[in-house]
Amino acid sequence: MVRPVSPTLPRIRVLATGGTIAGAQTPSTTLRAGSGARSYKAAVFSVDALVAAVPQLGELARLDVDQVAAIGSQDMDEATWRKLAARTQAALDEHGIAGAVITHGTDTMEETAFFLNLVVRSEKPVVLVGAMRPATAISADGPMNLYNAVAVAAHPEARGRGVLVVANDEIHFAREVAKTNTTQVGTFRATARGLAGLVNAGRLHFYAPPVRRHTAQSEFSLEGVSALPRVDIVYAYAGMGRELIDAAVRAGARGLVLAGVGDGNLTATVLGAAAEAAKAGVAVVRSSRTGGGVVERNIEIDDDKLGFIASDELNPQKARVLLMLGLTRTRDVRALQEMFFTY
Questions:
Q1: pTM for the model
Q2: Rounded (10°) angle between helices 109-119 and 316-326
Q3: Is there a single domain that holds both residue 202 and residue 97?
Q4: Are residues 259 and 145 part of one domain?
Q5: If both were cysteines, with which of 17, 138, 153, 170 could 69 make a disulfide (CB 3.0 to 4.6 Å apart)?
Q6: What pLDDT shows up at residue 32?
Q7: How far is CA 194 from CA 9, 15, 92, 107, in A?
Q8: Is residue 20 among the annotated active site residues?
Q9: Which of 17, 20, 106, 215 is catalytic?
Q10: Into how many domains does the chain fold?
């Protein structure tokens, strides 16, 4: 028997975009042992079905639902980002809404979370949640993840902490979180500054607040923005030539994020091509493919001389998000660099 929802509970808007959390297993014809147990299609179940599968949510909050999209997050794109941001902002602007939970695939969750962390203007909690196993899998992780996400969004102490990601009993800051494993439920890791907290069956333990600017203090806005500037990521490797840099510039990229080796380093050939691009007005950010650490300015590469931007702590995919938004405000390299030190 489901207990009635108390009218004194906070109202939470659940915005769904699809992903594995809404996925269902499909028959497999592969010959590899165990493949049939793992094959699935994302975004099969609606947000109503996800909420109905966890009746205990009624003990935490009064839920409104909004099906924004129904895709695997590998198909997340800029248009859906802008749509999701607008619907999230509209929800948070409602007087009776205490916070928002967004169901999302894990593949690009860190990028969506960081994007929202930069463009949503509210102190109210925004929590992204997903799953590594589809809803029909043995020991699906989605129901508990969703329960914990609603618990976080409904908690007063979640206010003012920026956009959060909840998975596997952990609470992550949008800026710090990264997906680090292809299949394991513990895929998300805090890459630089540690966890935002823990949540165990709805019981919260918050740690230190975020240290970089976000949400209500952000300078970024999507008002009047119909499309974001094109920014491409180019992955560095041993013996790399200039062809990928040149191709991105020819395709109309206004910004480039170079996933360099080590501390954002590049071959001499690539360095020359990137310097030419920067001189031509393309914003060039040096990030790193290593998965952790700080990309410093002017260590082995003279960023001041070449007109480059150092990504600081941001991985390539998050550096791309910040550069896209930064280019809506300025093309000045110094101003863009300051954004990477600020957000």
A1: 0.94
A2: 30
A3: yes
A4: no
A5: 17
A6: 60
A7: 31, 27, 27, 20
A8: yes
A9: 20
A10: 2
